[in-house]
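Query structure, 495 tokens:
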């Protein structure tokens, strides 16, 4: 097995390192926990079947190509022969100490005067490749201090470089997004192309209607890992509610590898990590001509070529007014974040008011099996594994055309109260300057980009006629409508 390492020095964080494992069916594949190690209570179907004639121009990876995972341990540590699998975590013994940190001393005789002629503008084009995975919590264009005194008639965030809104006739609206300064976009942590592509030919969202046969040969395989709910990082941006997820890492103490929450997509990749969850109200995508109350996107980072994000898109339907207990936990965390910001804007000291349920109660809410050792499961949000797919873009500036969508064909059921609270969070949460954002679309009252008609890419939908399921969870069966197509090949005995 060939191992190579690269150190990335960060100014604000500890030393990060990336270990890249290579080799056809190499020993690295043994590091990936089996479905039983990962507490996946279902028998995992066979891995991706790669079709060379599909996505051929993008060079999608075969099994013998590189799989990368972020680590937080010094790359000088060796990976000796001895391995043990305890509770689903692979560990390594090393007798090599962590390399000593470099110390720096201040300049003894600094110049007394600053540079006389600094450049008038910052460098817009990066000079090197960006860090692949995000920093802990990116700051969405704040000034250094909140605005003091009475706010101006126009919110101060309109002055930011990179500001945009969703108003039809606004100079910052969707029709003008191609003029937005995107030099500081968080998405450039994932992509190796740093352009504004909002006028590109493959934009999202779209009205999902199939125009080709399903090319996938198996379901999306999910592995939840062993995440802890209290490690989620909930943030409220003017355009989206977001929760950042734990990333693949190596334990500094025992060398145990944590592969994180991840998914395997047919004809795309082996398991790639989920990086964050986004929620918007109303939905940006339409499904078969219908817009829904909201949309959840689980973003997976695909480190191939210039970088990709693969979204599992779950639409939200409030028609039946059915409370979603797991989504409720997310909403309460975002509400707590909104309260924290208000209290701090009032100049008061914040103390947490909402406390998460205990471990046993959390497991009950997420309906976890005895084999699962975590207290929550990201993929319980998935309503099915049958989906429609296409290639498109990120739905906000820089609108990078490096996105792949898998839109589940069965919406999540939520209550009308939950829909109202999600919308309220997006429209009334104070920004970093303690102003109420005013970016919503006048017609929808939400932060949804209009349908992009110019995207004429192929769109496919996969049903039980394309690949029947050999088994399925009672969790899904209890939620599927009686006439849902996914039931057909489960109950008629087909393999």
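Result returned for the query:
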């Amino acid at each position: 097995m060939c191992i190579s390492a690269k150190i990335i020095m960060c100014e604000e964080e500890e030393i990060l390192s990336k270990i890249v494992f290579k080799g056809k069916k190499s020993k690295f594949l043994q590091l990936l926990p089996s479905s039983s190690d990962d507490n996946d209570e279902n028998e995992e179907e066979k891995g991706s079947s790669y079709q060379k004639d599909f996505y051929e121009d993008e060079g999608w990876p075969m099994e013998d190509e590189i799989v990368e995972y972020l680590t937080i341990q010094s790359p000088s540590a060796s990976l000796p022969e001895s391995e043990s699998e305890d509770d689903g975590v692979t560990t390594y013994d090393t007798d090599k100490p962590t390399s000593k940190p470099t110390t720096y001393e201040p300049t003894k005789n600094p110049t007394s005067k600053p540079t006389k002629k600094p450049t008038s503008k910052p460098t817009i084009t990066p000079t090197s490749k960006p860090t692949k995975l995000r920093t802990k919590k990116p700051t969405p264009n704040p000034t250094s201090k909140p605005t003091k005194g009475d706010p101006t008639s126009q919110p101060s965030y309109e002055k930011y470089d990179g500001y945009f809104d969703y108003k039809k006739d606004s100079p910052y609206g969707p029709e003008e997004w191609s003029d937005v300064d995107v030099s500081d976009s968080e998405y450039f942590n994932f992509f190796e192309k740093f352009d504004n592509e909002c006028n590109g030919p493959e934009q999202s969202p779209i009205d999902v209607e199939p125009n080709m046969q399903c090319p996938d040969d198996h379901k999306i395989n999910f592995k939840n890992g062993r995440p802890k709910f209290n490690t989620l990082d909930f943030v409220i941006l003017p355009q989206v509610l977001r929760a950042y997820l734990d990333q693949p890492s190596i334990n500094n103490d025992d060398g145990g590898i944590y592969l994180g929450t991840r998914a395997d997509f047919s004809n795309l990749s082996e398991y790639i990590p989920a990086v964050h969850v986004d929620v918007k109200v109303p939905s940006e995508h339409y499904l078969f001509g219908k817009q829904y109350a909201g949309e959840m996107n689980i973003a997976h980072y695909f480190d191939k070529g210039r970088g990709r994000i693969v979204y599992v898109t779950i639409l939200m339907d409030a028609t039946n007014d059915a409370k979603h207990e797991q989504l409720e936990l997310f909403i309460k965390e975002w509400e707590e974040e909104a309260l924290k910001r208000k209290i701090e804007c009032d100049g008061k000291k914040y103390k947490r008011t909402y406390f998460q349920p205990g471990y046993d109660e959390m497991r009950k809410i997420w309906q976890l099996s005895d084999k699962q050792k975590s207290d929550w499961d990201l993929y319980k949000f998935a309503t099915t594994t049958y989906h429609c797919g296409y290639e498109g873009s990120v739905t906000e500036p820089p609108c990078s055309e490096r996105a792949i969508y898998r839109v589940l064909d069965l919406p999540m059921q939520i209550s009308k109260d939950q829909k109202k609270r999600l919308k309220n969070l997006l429209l009334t949460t104070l920004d970093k300057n303690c102003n109420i954002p005013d970016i919503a679309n006048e017609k929808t009252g939400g932060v949804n980009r209009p349908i992009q008609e110019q995207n004429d890419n192929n769109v496919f939908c996969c049903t039980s006629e394309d690949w029947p399921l050999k088994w399925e969870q009672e969790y899904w069966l209890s939620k599927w409508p009686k006439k849902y197509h996914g039931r057909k090949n489960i109950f008629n005995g087909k393999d």
